[in-house]
Prior knowledge:
- The protein is an alpha+beta fold.
- The chain has one domain.
- Helix content is 26%, strand content 34%.
- Helix 1 packs across helix 2.
- The protein is globular.
Amino acid sequence: MQKRSLLRRQLIAAWKQTIDTRYSNQLINSERGLQCYFCAALLQEFDGLERRLFIEPRMTTHTLERRFPDIVIRNSKQVIGVVEIKYQPRGHAIYEKDLETLQWVASHPDGFTISNDRYLGPRDKKKYTLAGDAVLCWAGVYKGKQEDVKSQVSALLHPRFLDLHALTHPNEPAQTIPR
């Protein structure tokens, strides 16, 4: 059985909605645009569940290592999901750096401090642990055949990993995988 099945279903549904509506209506022209519409769809999927999205937050470990993943999802207690997005609708999938970030997240289960460096009000740096069943997701829009991204992930990342694809072809609608 896959872990965090509800969150997995929500990520898949939000991805499909984003590609089938926003991308297909030519509303997305950058990775940030994809991120924006995907997060909006994801918030709709959460439908009242206590979830919070951090967009490109700084995640810092106790050793002061840091990364800036595209999307971090948390519930009231823990980080339950991290999503790395790639938008290359006219090119081939590039995912190595994104998988490195997800691997880094998986290798720090003891937690992260998540902060917003640009906020000028009272700072609220909180430490969040990584849920043991957190979903670590790569989502990409790219041209051509489906890349076997899952075969490139480590044993540590594999049980938590979810890959979402939108394959583009000239003069055809994008094909989402999984469907």
